[in-house]
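Notes taken during the Thursday session

The instructor put the following on the board and asked us to keep it in front of us for the whole hour. The protein is AbiTii domain-containing protein. We were told not to look anything up and to reason only from what is written here. First, the residues (303 in total):
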Amino acid sequence: MSILRDIQAAILQENPDLGTILLKLRLLASRLGSEPLEDWVKYEAEGYPRDIEVPTYRIVSVSYTGSWSGPFGGGISNAPIPPYLIEKHAGEHWTRHRVRESIAGVQEMASKDHDLGLNSSNLILMLQGKVYEDYACNAVSGNISIFAVREIVQAVRARILELTIELEKRLPQAVEVTLQSVIEKTPESAATVTQIFNQTIHGNVTHVTATDNAHVSLAITAGDNASMVSELIKAGLSEPAAKEITEIVASEKPDNADQPLGRKALDWIKKNTPKAAGSAWKIGSAVATDLLKEAALKYYGLK
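Then, after some discussion, the predicted structure tokens were revealed:
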């Protein structure tokens, strides 16, 4: 049977084994020559390392409650802690948890009939004296809705199905791939698979074409510094450069979609673009400005 059709049949079952399905999809991605798709399948099957940013559908909200003791035997128990205070004193990653477990692990968590707890003991020290004045923080509990975890499973399932449907439409020869039969890989077909992958898996993706016809894809979430830094690094900027320009873009407001870069950003590009011609950046100077303009459009939600 065609590997692609086998994946489709399996994904449409009531409780599909996503771990096994991803193994089949990894083989198909290899046969089609798409490294980005292979990487995504690998991370979903094995889990996301700490140095790899997770897709947006794997970022879930965390709510917190705490208990405090005060003067004269007073106390406050199981009181909600505003997310603003958590982010202010501990960081955004505490309220927006990255689920890095393999999809098999996520499916196991999703099978529970109760919400999930998050180890929040470090927050006791971080919030000490910063929530209720003159009250000592004794305990903090983090809570992740089980529905948010189930949404991750559904997101992966839906993306796999959409991916195979688009492959069947736009690259019909993909249906011919079996364990015994291998189709000829070409740069054009690999590029098509990668484009389908970016559109179906990451959704809101911008493509920039360099002068050598290489394609750079930017999957940047509006207003999210971390995703912009991560995508610019993938596109070829050095990490310090990616962080610096992201901070500048975040500090400025665009006049319009035709010119999303502010004065500080334009000055930074003028000063730093020569680095693109050397070995500091893995990107040509001719495409650097277009790349950063597209990144700014995505960051500001203008595209």
